[in-house]
Amino acid sequence: MGGHVKLPMTELKLLCENMGFKNVRTYIQSGNVIFESDLPEEILIEKLEQSLFKKMQKQIPVIIRSVEEMEAVITSNPFPGAIPSQVGVMFFVDEVRKNVLDNLVIPGMEEVKISKREIYIHFPDGMGRSRLKLPIQNQGTVRNINTVSKLAQKGKI
Predict the structure, then answer these.
(1) Contacts within 8 Å (CB) and 24+ apart, 67-71
(2) Which of 35, 9, 7, 49 has its CA nearest to residue 151?
(3) What are phi and psi of 142, to 5 degrees?
(4) Is 152 strand, coil or helix?
(5) What is the pLDDT of residues 36-45, one digit of tens each?
(6) Is the predicted pLDDT of residue 3 greater than 90, yes or no?
(7) What is the DSSP letter of 117?
(8) Are the beta carbons of 5 and 58 closer than 8 angstroms?
(9) What's the farthest any 2 CA atoms get from each other in the chain?
(10) What is the pLDDT of residues 90-105, one digit of tens each?
(11) Is 93 helix (H, G, I), strand (E, B) or coil?
């Protein structure tokens, strides 16, 4: 969860525990939650979105990745020499269309690469200074490579 949704991580953790998820942990105040479940991704997304709607009275999109998928995101980073805090990964539920960035105008020094269900963005001047607007920005959520690495590590515990 990102942007304008404010849900304390203690409440998000409790919501997930009440749904029967195991070993629930959260990481930083940005909607990152780690848990164990045998349910398929589609069912998890549906259940989480329904529970979040019931709690928050608004539709909150959910994106899920396994530990293995998070590790693949890290190893597939097309900007391995960049400062990790300057590499963002935008996550999507579905596969990213290859032509989605065809008309993208890059206002600065940013570099953008499409992967399967992610878009990697190198922000050499920092994320906070960037004026880059992706045409699908409100369909995904961005985490920097440092956060992706921490989430993958925490998922192994």
Answers:
(1) 67/152, 67/155, 67/156, 70/148, 70/151, 70/152, 70/155, 71/152
(2) 35
(3) -105, 135
(4) helix
(5) 999 999 999 9
(6) no
(7) S
(8) yes
(9) 45
(10) 999 999 998 888 888 8
(11) coil
Task: Tell me if 60 sits within 8 A of 53, measured CB to CB.
Answer: yes
Instruction: Delineate the domains of the chain, giving CATH numbers in brackets.
Output: 9-56 (3.30.70.1280), 78-145 (no CATH)
Q: Phi and psi for 155 in degrees, rounded to 5?
A: -70, -20
Structure tokens at 6: 């404010």
Q: Tokens for 148, please give them.
A: 């992706």
Give the phi and the psi of residue 34 in degrees, each rounded to 5: -115, 135
* Predicted confidence (pLDDT) per residue in 68-125, tens digit: 999 999 999 999 999 999 999 999 999 999 888 888 889 899 999 999 999 999 999 9
Tokens of 39: 């349910």
Amino acid at 87: V
* In 7-157, alpha helices (H): 9-18, 41-56, 67-75, 145-156
Question: Which amino acid belongs to residue 101?
Answer: L
State residue 5's pLDDT score.
64
- What's this model's pTM, rounded to 2 decimal places? 0.90
pLDDT at 1: 46
Tokens at residue 5, please?
């949704």
